[in-house]
Structures are given as C-alpha cells and as structure tokens.
C-alpha cells in the first residue's frame, strides 16, 4: 500500500504564471493512494510534475508532504531495497561492467545472495546476455536490466518513471506483463506515463495530474469511459466543408455528433459517428478523403467541478482494481475518489517537510567494493601498465650500475616524482570514489553516492590491499627480470630489508589512500590524481624547507618513554617496528605523505560525515 499525502515541491515551475505568493510549484498538494494487487498509473502531460512527484515520494528532492509505504515513510524503513524498487531511467552503472557483474555488485549492496543475480537475469529474459556490457545493451535490454535491478531486493512496491518510453510495442507489452505479474502477487505498482491509452490498457487505477495538482482519481473502467472516446479520424483538403456537412446532416437526423477541427486545418475528429456515415457524406458531396479511420481519442484532463475538487483534496479512496462503484454522471466518476480529505489537510495543518535524505551505503561494503573494483577492465589494465613500465625502468636503471638496488627494484628514477607503482596505486584509489560519483550505482537518481563510514573503511581496506599487492608484484617481477638479464650477482638482500619493505609499502598504500580521499572530497577522479602528484611536487619541497641541523631535537628513547606511559607492556620486538615507523615518517616523502593524508582525512570527515555516522 502506497499513500502519498500533501506532496508539494519547493522548486518553482518554470514559465508558470505568477500567483500572489510567487510561482506555482512543480507539485502542489498532491494526494492519492496506490493499493496492493493493482497497477496504478500516474498520468500527466510532459512537464505536469510526474517525475517530481516520484522523487518526492522517494525523498530525493526537498519539499513538503509524506509518503507511506505499508504504513511507514521511506526513511524509517530499515532495508529500503526490500520495500521499494525504483526505475527512474537507464541503468546507473559503469558502461564497461557486464549485466551479471552489475547485478552481483548490487547484490552486495542490498545484502542478498549472489545467486539472486542469475535468477533475475533469467526472469527478465537476459540469461543469454549476462556477459554483455551495459554500454552495449539496446534500449529494450537496458530497460529489462533496470527492472532486474529494481527487483533485486524482492520489494513490495515498484515505482517506475515512464518505463516504456522509446520501446517497441512488443517490448512494452512484455514490461507491462511483468508489472501486472508483480501486482497479482500482492505487490504495489505505480508507474508514470503521459499516454492515456497506455494507462487505460495497462492500469486498473489511474491518477491524473495537471500542473502538479490532482485532476482525477479513477479506476480503469471509469477512466476509459470519461477520458477516452471512440472517434472517426478524417483527413481531407476540404475539411471545413466536410465538417459543416456532417454537422448539418447529424442535426437533421437528430443524432448527437461532435466534429472537432484539428490545428493543421486538414484533419477532423468526429465523435458519435462511424466511418461509413462520414464516408457516405463525403461521397455524396464529392469531397475527396485522404484518411478515414476509427480511433480512440483523448479528451484531455477532466476539468470543471472535478478538477476544482481535486485541487483542494487531500485524500484518495480508490483502493483497488475492481469494478467501479455505481455512478450516474461522468463528472462523479472523475471525482469519486478525490473527495476524502487527508488527515493533515483536513485539520488545516501543513504537511511535514521532506528533507533530502542521505543515501544509504552497501550492506556488505567489502564485498561490494571488490566487485566494483574488479568488475571492469580498468583495474587490470592499470596494473598491467604499471608492471610493464616498472620492469622496463628497472632494467634500464640497473644498466649503469650507479642507482641503488632499492631504487632499481622499485623502478624509481630520480627524474620521476613517484615510481609507477605508487602512481598506479594512486590512480586506482582515485577511481574508487571517482567512478562512484560518475556512475552512481549505489544511489539511483541522486547523482551522488553515500559517504558512510563503513563504505569508506571498505574502500580504504581494498585499495590498500591492492596497493600492497601491486608493490609486491612489482618488486618480485623486477627482481626476476634483473636476474634473467644481468644474472643473480646483482641481487643481494640489504641489511635494512625490513625497513625498506615497510617504506615501500607505506608509499604505495599512502598514495592509494591520498587519491581515494581526494576523489571522495571533490567527487572527481582528477582531484585524486592531483592529490597524489601534489605530494612530491608541492608538499615534499615544503617539508624539506623545515630547519635542520643541531637545532632539530632527537626522538632517541621514544619506545622506552612510551612503555612507561602505557598500561600494557608490549614485546621488545615492537620497539624496532616503532622506530622503523618513526624513521619512515621522518623521511621527507614519508612526512609529506603523512601530512597530506592527515589533511585529507580531516577534510573528508568534515565534508562527508557531518551528519549521523552509520556503520
């Protein structure tokens, strides 16, 4: 059961006529119900406020009003994907990701088993296209995948914005059949459309809006009777003369016939007659006819008393898809379900405000991040390029014999600000948030992704793990390449191998985290890459300008002093690791990286986690 009460947007309608208190809102005091077991159509011309109403229901836009999904507003539902499935357009996701990969990634976000992805691919008829990339799908296949994403959490309610726009009739019929099947299973379905014939053919309950306000709330039978009328479509070069003749003969025969001239002047719509009668009239008077066909005409939104009543109403009594109640007049049909006032409006109270709710993070963040990272070829391509560049640089640096072995294995010539492995780790870290904001799969229709602490920790863990793996593979591959090219005499394990390994790991992980945090703050991948490059280019020179010499105090004896302050005694071996970390931070690059990470973490916390922190 879906109950929308007093929905009013705060965004004014463009090019609207002014009112005493300003411009008319896109959605103005819209109230209606959509019952379970029924397909409900939200009908309105383009620009009437259908999409804005759906976004208000989903708390994607600020405004006033409230929408109950089985008695609860969406922000109080603990697992929204199990209550509401949404299709607001194309599939929001990286175009290089496969359809199966997209669904599996969203399975981790929704907290459902990964087997659900294959079930939905079979349900929507994409079982043979699971390995097809999203960017290569046709419009019909993309719409099927969007429906599969909406059904991922087995929701009770489906909200769709013009789901069959641009589809062929066969694909549109299939999609409407899926919606009816969901409703027949006890679910609630609400879809927005601008085609009254589609609404009459598909929906058992039609809610008509115009200029953001409720016009009519009817069941399907009453809607078809009051809104759609059979007519004869006629096209003739002498349309005006034919219209006069048809009207004159109808009056002579005392038949109720209405003739409406279309805007182009050559087309007529004749209500209350037939093709044979209109054709006979044209033949008797020698009028050529270029088109003569039976059609179902749209009479436009119901106006008059019904429209006025709907504008001031705040409730809806149309609860199902059964036969309409006994009604004598069409106007009563139109306003039958809009007479019951909602509680808030009946008491003269303003509906509660709708605040733009922050998007929720994935329920299984680590699994989600792994599938996001390795679901596209970018990750493997970056790692392959870094590996190839590192091996080539290592072989070249070892040729002259003047470069220290650690720099040779890290492939870090003096002319580069950072080694390829650190740059690659920074790029992958920047893509962790950059691709989220560019292709927001977590929050359809929001244009952004949630900045929850659990998602941040998952991204830090996965990007750090990938950076460590990349650093290890680069060193091992470079060492093996040097052994093959120059022999094994070049490779000697240095005495400070442990501290070198810690420094190398800290550099790659720090670059990955710097790129990730900067991309999360500025919501673009380029910002993450710029933050990584800023460490050696800007921050290191700043650190190197700090005073040196006899005035610099020593930290000798720091482990012992920390042991005196601590309640728990740690092993003596931990002192060596603590001193290694201190020496790492004391290095100009390490100090610059630590300073950059500290600033980025504070900025991320300030910009992204100012609200309530959720795990």
Please give a quick description of this structure:
The protein has helices spanning 50-57, 99-110, 115-123, 139-150, 169-184, 196-202, 220-227, 239-252, 275-284, 304-312, 330-335, 343-346, 365-374, 377-400, 405-410, 420-438, 453-486, 497-522, 525-544, 558-565, 573-586, 588-608; strands at residues 2-9, 18-19, 22-23, 30-34, 38-43, 63-69, 72-73, 84-87, 157-161, 188-193, 205-210, 213-219, 228-235, 258-261, 267-271, 291-298, 353-354.
What would your notes on this structure say?
The chain has 615 residues and is of the alpha+beta class. Helices cover 48% and strands 14% of the residues. Strands 8-9-10-5-11-12 form a six-stranded mixed beta sheet, sandwiched between helices. Strands 1, 4, 6, 7 and 17 form a five-stranded antiparallel beta sheet that branches. A hairpin with a 2-residue loop joins strand 11 and strand 12 (213-219). Helix 13 (365-374) crosses helix 17 (453-486) and helix 16 packs antiparallel against helix 17 (453-486). The two termini are 30 Å apart.
